[in-house]
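Protocol step 4 of 5: obtain the predicted structure for the target chain.
Materials: sequence only (see below). No template structures provided, no constraints applied. The aim of this step is simply to have a reference model before the mutagenesis design in step 5. Sequence pasted as it appears in the construct record:
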Amino acid sequence: MKQTPSKDVSAQLAAAPVTPLLLKLAIPTILAQLVNLLYNIVDRIYIGHMPVVGDIALTGVGICFPVIYLLSAFAALIGQGGAPRAAIAMGRGDNNEAERILGTCFTSLIVTALLLTAAFQLWGEDLLWLFGASEDTIGYALPYMRIYAVGSLFVMMALGMNLFITTQGYTTFSMITVVLGAALNIILDPVFIYAFDMGVAGAAWATILSQAVSAAFAVAFFFGKRTKLRLKRAYLLPSLKLLGPILALGLAPFVMQSTEAILNVAFNSSLQKYGGDVPVGCMTVSATIMQMFWLPSQGIGQGAQPILSYNFGAGNMERVRKAFTTMLVVSAVFICAGWAAVMLFPTFFIRIFNDSPALLEMGSWTLRVYLATFFLMSIQMSIQQVFVSLGRARSAVFVACVRKVILLIPLIYILPHFFEDKVFAVFLAEPVSDFLSVLTATVFFFATMRKTLWPKSEQKEHAQ
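Step 4 output (structure tokens):
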């Protein structure tokens, strides 16, 4: 009886109509990404609408984004590196090995979180100045960052351990742990910010307390009845033999997420130099609005991943191509709809976070510039997802690095030398990078995957 569900799933991946199957698989992942998005934007909405100081406080919190990105990156390094290896061990029937991997990752997450907490407490203020803080924003950025850093353990544990729940097939429970934290955050934010008059500090406390609840539920799962893997004291001492392969596999998602921190620093420091706090606030809002459409589109890609991976392993290239095409079309419809809405009604989206005249005036055009070529990003996402799903981690990292490291970061510093309006030039770096990176990714995809996805044997059959 226990094998029936897995057989049913395998049969669906192999033969069910691709479009309805992809949508069925994508809905939970899209919901999970939307809930994750709530964690990222609820604080910003409440902070941005604080009386009198909302705009400057929102800018201050935006300065802290690199800290949030780095915590997520290190959680991905350990969690996304360990969870697939635990699943592989379970597939071999070696649950002891899988539990050793779980124990190694659990302890590694704790140690890494404590080290990051200490680093942010010791050098946090210096880092914030480097990130683009000003005399006006440092008073909001520093308390938020220090309180958020205190909760590093909860953030990393919630993110990292949830991956080990998902890899066992308990996606519903995994989503529930995230939903509980997000719902609590929505409730606590106005209480701490307004009722307790704690301002930005209250938003930080609300977030880490919510993450603590998510982390507690995630860890408790491994002592319950449903889990196939258990946290055992004998396996909590990290194994260097296991840790090396874990970190190697987790390097790709780590690079993708950590570069977001570097990118945020480049944007904020340049905008602070050329325009001050208002452009930095516009970047905070623009980046958040991009996330509103980018994260759910990633959920579409994650829904396509099992279909792509399973049928690639089975050698059914026709079905792999169908899944890729469906993923591309669905994500393109979603992203293009979001892009059109932003282009037509930019002030509507800005008012979600703040309605100060200065931010609305500048933000209405900076947002349009920033997202000018965003409608192309479904191509970028789909290509990256195919590389990941087919085990081409290096190719996925290359495509991500082309956009962020090779193109976008240099353009942030180069373009202002060619435009009188330096702020415009910094925001222009994003659409120029997006266009060039999509072009590069497309050429690279067909150059490296043509023989894999369109093998000569199939080409000969079609020719006949």
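Step 4 remarks: Residues 1-7, 459-464 have pLDDT under 50 and may be disordered. The chain has 18 helices and no strands.
Proceed to step 5.
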